[in-house]
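Residues pack. Consider this:
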Amino acid sequence: QVQLVESGGGLVQPGGSLRLTCAASGFTLEQYYIGWFRQAPGKEREGLSCITTTASSTTYVDSVKGRFTISRDNAKSTVYLQMNSLKPEDTAVYYCAADPLLCPTIHTYSYRGQGTQVTVSS
């Protein structure tokens, strides 16, 4: 069974850090581009970051650039999103998605996880 499972979300104070994990099963993660997305209440889903199959290239949306870092461990079939200097506006459900050809987009992906909640509040 193909699965992407996110974990690592939770409640954190402004300025704090979290590391999200996207664990894959049922397919060969190393053959897929992985993207991280988020959706806040009442807002559209937003693409945050993407990493290529070999981690040779990463991209970030401006709102998280310099604060978030995407990485992957293909041997563990896992992709990470390190989130530092978190702000209340980072509060959202965070998702990962996989695509074999290109960085996943909001509408184009092969697999997507169910998400993990991140709440940034004092």
Observations:
- The first strand starts at residue 3 and ends at 7.
- The chain has no helices and eleven strands.
- Residues 14 and 21 are 20 Å apart (CA to CA).
